[in-house]
Amino acid sequence: MDKRRRITLNDIARACGVSRATVSLVLRGSPLVHPETRRLVEAEMQRQGYVYNRAAANLRQRVSSAVALVINDLSNPFFAEFAAGVDEALGAKGYVTLLGSSNESPARQRQVLGSLMEHHPAGIILSPAESSMASDVALAIGRHTPLLVFNRQLTGDAEPGFEYDFLGLDNRAGTRAATARLIALGHRRIAFYGGHAGSSSCRERRIGYQEALREAGIAPDERWLIETAPTRLEANAHADALLALEPAPTAAVCYNDAVALGLMLGLVRLGRRPGEDFAVTGFDDIPEAAVGIPPLTTVSAAPRQRGRQAAELLLQRAASPSIPGRSVIVPVHLTERDSAPAPAS
Amino acid sequence: MDKRRRITLNDIARACGVSRATVSLVLRGSPLVHPETRRLVEAEMQRQGYVYNRAAANLRQRVSSAVALVINDLSNPFFAEFAAGVDEALGAKGYVTLLGSSNESPARQRQVLGSLMEHHPAGIILSPAESSMASDVALAIGRHTPLLVFNRQLTGDAEPGFEYDFLGLDNRAGTRAATARLIALGHRRIAFYGGHAGSSSCRERRIGYQEALREAGIAPDERWLIETAPTRLEANAHADALLALEPAPTAAVCYNDAVALGLMLGLVRLGRRPGEDFAVTGFDDIPEAAVGIPPLTTVSAAPRQRGRQAAELLLQRAASPSIPGRSVIVPVHLTERDSAPAPAS
DNA sequence: CTGAAAGCGCTTACAG
DNA sequence: CTGAAAGCGCTTACAG
Predict the structure, then answer these.
(1) Cβ separation of B74 and A62 shorter than 8 Å?
(2) Using 50, 70 and 90 to split pLDDT, how confident is the model at A241?
(3) A137 and A203, same domain (yes or no)
(4) Residue from the list B119, B292, B321 with its beta carbon closest to the beta carbon of A55
(5) ∠B341-B344-B345 over CA atoms, to 5°?
(6) Are A228 and A140 members of one domain?
(7) Same domain, B148 and B204
(8) For residue A6, which nucleotide's C1' is closest to its Cα?
(9) Minimal C-alpha gap between B217 and chain A (Å)
(10) Are both B208 and B153 inside the same structural domain?
């Protein structure tokens, strides 16, 4: 750190010939202090380049002005947008964001949570790594820090008394709408491509897909469920598994946009033309979905707005910790673009 | 906040019948304390669920364990990856990341910096909003907090005494290599597409491009310089300006990958086939460059590694503030994929 | 409207 | 090896 002593309240008080308490009142805009005194003090702070030490104030007041945000995968634009939304809303409310990224590793996530807890945040927003255990999270953050979990449910049960809010997307309705639309276009053999069946969001999205099939009188075929890690790279690599089916599907409902974009590239690599002779839908509506080639038909989840919403929910809970754990499921809607045409005659 | 009193060092000390000082020594693994006492204290901390209050410790020690990271555009994967790299490296060194995002607004940036300064970070990593003034930044953070600026130079001069480190890419060499490659493939009419001429990175990239043209005996045409905001959306919208030129260029060196991906979509919209009858190159090598359609020939900058590097540089300076402002320019290299073929005969 | 004193949860010399 | 006291930079009653 820098050697020079920092300017403190004391310096200002001494220079102005008033007490620390008076300067403190000026700082927080109290009406108690005489306008003339206020002007004097403010000028002196300006002159000396005083900068408030919020950590010291928070210590005394026993409050926190920080919220921890732990993200599983910042390189996925869906989560990057979410993070931007969280930070925006927290900043507007005077909170600062403590960032942590787990890179989808539950071990790293535990470590990151532990380190963030030492800063006694007012709350935690967690977009969990795949297959994070509720009991691990409970252990890391204890039962007194408000927690909001985003997007994926924690697996397993924590001890009773560990409560948290949940903000998720209506996964089932989303894939159901996408699948129904494909059926309406004339598709009959529709795969569900990508994601890990273990994750709550993947499970829910598969259910919506199967519901739409059954509703149309189509028997879901087990082999139409193809697992891949939820990344572009993995989705690209497994495209051949989809085309190897006999008879091959004519359409794929994908776990998310990253998977859909990867699959489309894989299809091109294998000589197919997604958007012309094969239909693909995504989930999330990340910014590049609209400007892909072809533009992606997908389920829109507005990640930046979700981030703002997550921040609101968390701060509400921090303000009244007595409310029991809530679960907010956000409606989503299908955005049609060009990647999902009718089946090639 | 929660009503219940937090467990403190005092509680542990009292429960164990030792002094606070002893518990403090246990906490920091001092060899001075008797092994038996240590075991006792540790067991008690476990039992009561004690969590260290790093803010209080930092206050007493007059140090900071936080570094502020201010990002201009988290929805650009280049910067999201950079942020992930910074957080990773800082976490490994025991620092926590204070996140702020400016959304490319200098006003918002000033506000965010001011709020982060109140947390007295050990240093600041700033990826500046477009056309941020050095004097504004100097005003917001003062002259005693180590600063590392990433990617873009600050415009204008600050008062003397305001020093900072700079980490940037070798922009000139990057676009020069891309342009030279296009020329080698047989292109003669090559545009420079996208970016704002006011930004230092755009200026440098244009220079590299013009150098390569001149070296090949091609006179750069003013009209080949087309400005757009550095986003997918804007790049897409202005594609017609490129094709309207007479005679039309056969290739475009783009300001960055976001612009290149947007331009390619715009070209498709206008009936062209990038990668077949038009050559496009990017800059950054964001993850989706490799899996675009066609895969993008681009200049690789390895943003996540740059993030780790930025964290290292900043912590070095924080450790020895006496070193004068350094400027580290990272070499980049051309990654050839399919988006830049030879000109259509 | 302003000041003197105590305290937030830690660490740091200084004794012993 | 352990304890008593002072202090980091603030805020909070309590007097006046």
Answers:
(1) no
(2) very high
(3) no
(4) B119
(5) 125
(6) no
(7) no
(8) D9
(9) 36
(10) no
pLDDT of residue B120: 95
Is pLDDT larger for residue B288 or for residue A276?
A276
What's the CATH code of the domain at A34?
1.10.260.40
pLDDT digits (tens, 9 = 90+) for B150-206: 999 999 987 888 899 999 999 999 999 999 999 999 999 999 999 999 889 999 999
The domain tally of chain B equals 3
- For residues A186 and A294, state if they share a domain: yes
Q: Is residue B190 part of a domain?
A: yes
- The CA distances from residue A117 to A139, A315, A331, in Å, are 11, 17, 32
Test B321 with A288 for CB contact under 8 angstroms: no
CB contact under 8 A, B288 and A232: yes
Residues 58-77 of A with CB under 7 A from strand C: 59-60, 62
Q: What is the pLDDT of residue A1?
A: 36
Mean pLDDT in residue range B214-228: 96
- Minimum distance, in Å, between the CA of residue B230 and any CA atom of chain A: 14
Looking at the structure, do residues B93 and B132 belong to the same domain, yes or no? yes
- Residue A320: CB atoms within 10 A of its CB come to 8
**Predicted local confidence at residue B1, as pLDDT:** 36
pLDDT in tens, B99-151: 999 999 999 999 999 999 999 999 999 999 988 999 999 999 998 899 999 99
Give yes or no: residues A298 and A320 share one domain. no
How close B208 gets to chain A, by Cα (Å)? 28
The amino acid at A30: S
Residue B98: which domain range?
65-169+303-330
Q: Which of A150, A132, A117, A142 is nearest to A303 (CA)?
A: A150
| Chain B, nearest residue to A76 by Cα | B77
Beta strands B333-335 and B297-300, pairing class: antiparallel
Q: How confident is the model at residue A4 (pLDDT cuts 50, 70, 90)?
A: low
Chain A residues touching residue B162 (CB < 8 angstroms) = none
